[in-house]
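Hi U.,

Before I forget, here's the chain from the pilot set. I'm dumping it here mostly so it's searchable later in email.
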Amino acid sequence: MTIFEMTTANRRLIADVLDSLDDARWDHPTLCAGWTVRHMAAHLVQPILIGFGRFLLTAMRYRGDTDRTVDHLTRRLARRPPTELVRLLRDHAGDRVVPPRVGPMGPFADTCLHLRDIARPLGLDADVPVEHWHVLMDYLTSPSVAPALVRPGRLRGLRLVATDTGRDWGSGAEVAGPVEALAMAAAGRSVALADLRGPGVGKLII
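Structure:
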């Protein structure tokens, strides 16, 4: 599968998960501070609905602050009913979005990480295929990874070992655990550290 095909499959999976949630769970916090499941659903359709031109104009209002721009657009889209957000995610699952700087890996990474940002706090097992985590880990540990996903230097001097799949990345002090937890921790989700072990865990600065 190509990155685009994997992103499409993951969007459809997320839509199915969202469609199964009741109203209370739509208002449940996710792993992204300040965002509920409703906000996360809106964020996932944001790059599909908001073109680069509109994003740039909004960013100018926030003096180029990408985080504030994304939060603003997400909160506006989150005003839409859950059923509409799910429909939009399904209808546009196959859209090939290529954001500046991050390219197609950006939306793909979002589908992997944000599904678990939703599922972990809700105690759900919903997850992307393990092969998708391998692709994402290859990217997160590469020199070309976007700083927004992995802070520069976070993984330096570490060997990340996926105990459930036998894959590993990098060299140095070992950090071992499920590949999902490795990717979540690499991307700054401190809750995933509880699923990891090894002398390098203390060096994995979140």
